[in-house]
Automatic annotation (TrEMBL):
GO molecular function: transcription coactivator activity
Protein name as annotated: Transcription and mRNA export factor ENY2
Chief location category: nucleus
Quaternary structure and interacting proteins, as annotated: Component of the nuclear pore complex (NPC)-associated TREX-2 complex (transcription and export complex 2). Component of the SAGA transcription coactivator-HAT complex. Within the SAGA complex, participates in a subcomplex of SAGA called the DUB module (deubiquitination module). Component of the nuclear pore complex (NPC)-associated TREX-2 complex (transcription and export complex 2). Component of the SAGA transcription coactivator-HAT complex. Within the SAGA complex, participates to a subcomplex of SAGA called the DUB module (deubiquitination module).
Database matches in Pfam families: EnY2 (PF10163)
């Protein structure tokens, strides 16, 4: 396991233990809904299903198909806010 992987795991553990991970997930959900991301993704899913045919699309296929677009559509302002909150949390809880 690389140093980066260990650090990532430690940060994740600290975020989870202190309940911050859940708060960040709630914030992310709210921000994505607020900016219309959720509606865009729903429309993209419908598009993919219509294109491939309902009987020929599995959930896994859909996830593979929409994930890149989903990540690309997250506004930079949302990414920056989450990163800022994670950094602030880590600075406050540094050991």
């Amino acid at each position: 396991m690389s140093k980066e992987s260990r650090m990532r795991a430690t940060i994740n553990q600290k975020l989870t233990e202190m309940g911050e991970r859940e708060r960040l997930k709630e914030l992310l959900r709210a921000k994505l809904t607020e900016c219309g991301w959720k509606d865009q993704m729903k429309a993209h899913c419908k598009e993919v299903i219509k294109e491939k045919g309902f009987e020929h699309v599995t959930v896994e296929d859909l996830v593979v198909e929409i994930t890149p677009k989903g990540r690309a559509l997250v506004p930079d302002s949302v990414k920056k806010e989450l990163l800022h909150r994670i950094r602030a949390f880590l600075a406050q809880h540094a050991t």
